[in-house]
Structures are given as structure tokens and as C-alpha cells.
Design goal:
Arc Repressor Mutant, subunit A, five-stranded mixed sheet, single chain, 12 helices, Nucleotidyltransferase, domain 5, about 400 residues, 3 domains, alpha/beta
Length: about 400
């Protein structure tokens, strides 16, 4: 026999508080009457929760509504944005991009730190840049720092396992952050490590091309290639954090096979930025003289789409479809998003070509979309992840 359980008064208060805080986060300042209308709660309950949240330093009056007469009913309430600050870090082999935001997720300061060859102090330099950005944002302390990095992130331990040839400073940076090496601003901060493509998948799911999808796969096209898998609204990581490491996928069209320690010869060798530039040259297309292989491939792909270079785009789409088909026949996601710098550069044109070729390789109907978050998706996903962690701590609930 199932016994119905009634929420205790403290549980009911926590649920109501979280409901009101989520509404203030999503919609901005609201009046008490608007909160009553949106929550269905009574006048006394809303009055009590507003008083409680103000005492906790989470909510404060924020002026009056122009639509209402002056008085208590017109008073607006808003989240106290500087109640907590968070940071996001996108770690690449070529350097770091970081951002500091407030409780509402509004970015207050950013920094880019390029990594030169053989920099022994790069981890320390990155921590100093993070502290400077925090100071610029007016943050005495960072509540949570979310870091996106290439490689396998063990879901049980949070350790970064090098699946390629990552620079040593990647692990040194993580160690410095977790040790609170920056002093009071980092002391006690929660450090969340996540695979970079998984963070990009979170960004595309909540802000980008897959907002209307609970199940989809993101294929990241940048310096290398990776995937993020979201099934039934949940990001899937696998037993060792390796879900989506399709750069290692053995595929036809390469001259070798990948190994446990290197993805050369795998899917990476077909659609990584260097391979895309080489394919363009083989089709007689000029490769822009830009700094870095990703930027070169991004610019040439945009030029190819604008010029209607069908032969090049068709062959590239054929290559991408090979890796996408492997995902589709195993997971049947129904939707594949082409993300990263190259996915965004190829846009709807490249996505449509991949979709047509994928239809010939997979028995399942799969929509292919161009990502909208681009190369900034990793940082955006890290901000979302850090913000979720902060609000779980301050707001309560899941």
C-alpha cells in the first residue's frame, strides 16, 4: 500500500522560495502581485517568502512598477545579483578564455590569455588573470569556477585524464584552482571540471540550436572533433567520461588507425581543421592567411559557402556524415547539431548537405542543424554550469 506524504512546513517553504527565486532569475524584477499570479500562492505566503528571502540577502526591493499605482503593490523585487559571483574558464591547447559573472549569470569581466611554447608559469599567469577579472567584477570571492578542458573527465573523481597530448599546464591550472592558490578570492571555491564539448552541448541545448530538443547529439567541429550526447534532457558522460570521443572513431578514408594514445587516423583526420584546409586546397580553394588552423579553416569555410563551392562542401559533408552516422545508428538522437567554429561557419548550407548524406547512411530520420553558439559555446556552457551550482547551493533543491 502506498502512503501519501504531505510536505512539512519547512519543505513547503523551501519549495516556494525556490519557485519565487527561479521566476525572479528568469523574468527579472517582479511585484508581489505578479509573484502571486505566477505561483498561485496566497498573499500572506508571498509576503512571508519575500521577507524571508530579503533576510537571507537573496532578494531586495528594486524600484516600483510603472504599470501600477504607487504603493506596496507597485514595489518591485529582484535578485541581489552580487550575492555571489562565479567564473567560467575555457581551456584550449593554445590558451585560455575566462569570464566572471554575477548570480544572475550576467558577465561582468572577461580575459584571454594566449599560451606560448614552453611557458612554465602559464597556470600561475592564468590564475592571476582570473583574480584580476574577479576584482574588475567587484567580486571579493568566487563561489564556483567551472572549467571546460579537452580530454576525459572522470565522472566519479573529477580528474582530467589525458586522452591525447595535452600541455602540462592543463593539470597544473586545475591543481592551482582546487588548492585555492589565488588566496581569499578562490579559497573555498567549488571547482567543477567538465569536458569542453559537453559544455558546448549544454550551451546549444539551453541557449542555442537545440533549445526545443530533449534528445540530440552535438558534433563539435574545430581544431579536432568531438561529440556531446543529450538523451531525455540529460547529458550522458559514460562510465569513464568518454562518451563522445569520436575523434578516435576508426573511419574509412584515412591512411591509418587511431590508437589508445592518439586520434591520428581516426575521424579527427577527416574533419579536423587541418584536414578541412587540406581538402580545400585539393579543390583549388585559397586558404586564408589567418593565425591558427581553426581560424583559417573557419574563414575558408565561410568563403566556400558564400561562393557556392559545391564540390568542396559536398565532400566535406560526406566526411562529416560518416562520423554522424556512427552516432545515429547507435543512439538514434533524431537531431544532430554541427557545433564549434566550423559548424557555425558552415551554417545551414553545410548542415543541409550533411543531412542529405546522412539519410543515405542511416535508417533513422535525423535532422541536422547548424550550431549557433560557435566557438564561444564552451565558455557559455561553463557559465551555465557554474550558475546552476551556485543557485543549487543558495536556492536549495536540485
Amino acid at each position: 500500500m502506498t502512503i501519501a506524504r504531505t510536505a512539512t512546513p519547512s519543505t513547503a517553504r523551501a519549495i516556494n522560495d525556490r519557485l519565487a527565486l527561479d521566476l525572479l532569475l528568469e523574468r527579472g524584477p517582479l511585484t508581489a502581485s505578479e509573484l502571486r499570479s505566477l505561483t498561485g500562492l496566497s498573499r500572506p505566503t508571498v509576503a512571508d517568502l519575500l521577507e524571508r528571502l530579503q533576510r537571507a540577502g537573496l532578494v531586495a526591493p528594486a524600484g516600483e512598477s510603472a504599470q501600477l499605482r504607487r504603493g506596496p503593490n507597485a514595489r518591485l523585487y529582484a535578485l541581489v545579483a552580487d550575492r555571489a559571483h562565479l567564473a567560467a574558464i575555457d581551456v584550449r591547447a593554445t590558451g585560455v578564455t575566462l569570464a566572471v559573472a554575477d548570480l544572475t549569470g550576467r558577465t561582468l569581466a572577461t580575459a584571454e590569455i594566449p599560451a606560448g611554447p614552453g611557458e612554465e608559469d602559464f597556470a600561475a599567469r592564468t590564475v592571476r588573470a582570473l583574480l584580476a577579472a574577479a576584482a574588475e567584477a567587484g567580486a571579493d570571492r568566487l563561489h564556483t569556477v567551472a572549467v571546460g578542458a579537452p580530454g576525459l573527465v572522470d565522472p566519479a573523481t573529477g580528474a582530467l585524464n589525458n586522452s591525447g597530448n595535452l600541455p602540462r599546464w592543463h593539470t597544473e591550472l586545475l591543481a592551482a584552482l582546487r588548492a585555492g592558490a589565488g588566496g581569499p578570492a578562490l579559497d573555498g571555491a567549488e571547482v567543477i571540471l567538465e569536458n569542453e564539448v559537453n559544455l558546448a552541448g549544454i550551451a546549444e541545448h539551453r541557449l542555442g540550436a537545440a533549445r526545443d530538443r530533449d534528445t540530440f547529439a552535438l558534433v563539435w567541429l574545430g581544431h579536432s572533433v568531438g561529440a556531446a550526447v543529450v538523451l531525455d534532457g540529460r547529458l550522458r558522460r559514460g562510465a569513464s567520461g568518454g562518451t563522445g570521443e569520436i575523434c578516435f572513431l576508426p573511419v574509412p578514408g584515412t591512411t591509418a588507425l587511431p590508437s589508445a594514445t592518439g586520434c591520428e587516423g581516426g575521424f579527427h583526420s577527416l574533419v579536423g581543421s587541418v584536414a578541412v584546409a587540406e581538402l580545400a586546397q585539393r579543390h583549388g580553394l585559397p586558404v586564408p592567411a589567418a593565425t591558427g588552423p581553426v581560424r583559417r579553416a573557419e574563414l575558408l569555410l565561410r568563403d566556400a559557402v558564400a561562393a557556392g563551392e559545391a564540390a568542396f562542401l559536398d565532400e566535406l559533408a560526406e566526411r562529416i556524415a560518416i562520423g554522424a552516422a556512427a552516432i545515429c545508428v547507435v543512439l538514434d538522437p533524431g537531431c544532430v547539431v554541427l557545433g564549434g567554429e566550423l559548424g557555425r561557419a558552415g551554417g545551414a548550407d553545410l548542415a543541409a548537405r550533411v543531412e542529405r548524406r546522412l539519410a543515405r547512411l542511416s535508417p533513422f530520420s535525423t535532422e541536422v542543424r547548424a550550431g549557433t553558439a560557435g566557438g564561444g559555446a564552451v565558455l557559455a556552457g561553463a557559465l551555465l554550469t557554474a550558475g546552476d551550482a551556485v543557485r543549487r547551493d543558495l536556492f536549495g533543491g536540485e
